[in-house]
Write a structure and sequence with these properties.
Layout (H helix, E strand, L loop, with lengths): L16 H14 L11 H8 L3 H13 L3 E4 L3 E4 L2 E2 H22 L5 H19 L3 H19 L2 H9 L2 H9 L5 H17 L3 H25 L4 E2 L1
Parallel strand pairs: 3-4
Antiparallel strand pairs: 1-2
Helix pairs in contact: 1-3, 4-6, 4-8, 4-10, 5-6, 5-9, 6-9, 9-10
Length: 230
Amino acid sequence: MGFAFGSSAQSRRGLSKAVVVYDDLRSAIIGLELKPGARIDKSEVCGRLGVSRQPLAEAIARLAEERLVEVEPQKGTFIARIRMADVAEAAFVRRALEVATVEAVAAGMDEAALARLERVLGYQAAALKAKDAAEFYALDVRFHTMLFERLAMRRVAEVVETSRAQLERARRLMLPTGRSQHTLKEHRAIFAALEARDPARAARAMGAHLDEVMEELKRFAARQPELFEL
């Protein structure tokens, strides 16, 4: 299996062992360190994190509820393929909330907030030039997170976070495909609308950006049936 575990469960005080195992496995699944179809080596997980089988079983049960793993009796536990139905649902939630967010914050954007967004776009351009896909993706997430922070409605951000697992796995798989250049262009269109303090234009730009991402995801999934469940 092989992925980068965090520190042992015993060293992370305040967290139950099951939570530590769950967090590590979930991060590895979403970050594609554990790819769809991979088998979880339970002995390796227990050995590296210094836990017994019980916390691992609890963590796997939670991951199965999120449909991130599949437990096959007598065979083992495997990382689930990405279900396009789940991706579409997550994308629907994300689109509704992100379009509403930029529409709500556009008129009140101040110069300091715009400068921070513009700085992220500059970093994204540098990451694109350097062909640093991981850094570009991290900055992509940061750009969208900053807009939720501007909205200052914690539960809105939490709803997006809870629905992002399947969508993020799919988006990470697309990093080498060349979508980054289009993403940067679309982010700049969103920024321009925010800079103009134009709510309707910002909403259109965000909607167009997220729609393009979803359409490309569908095309990508059709070419990768071993990774996706259509």
